Amino acid sequence: MEQQKLPNSTLILVFGILSIVTCCCYGIIGLILGIVALVLSKGATRIYQENPELYTGYSNVKTGKVLAIIGIILSVLYLLLSIWAISVFGLETMQDPDALREAMEEYLGQQ
Question: Full-prediction pTM beyond 0.85?
Answer without folding.
Answer: yes
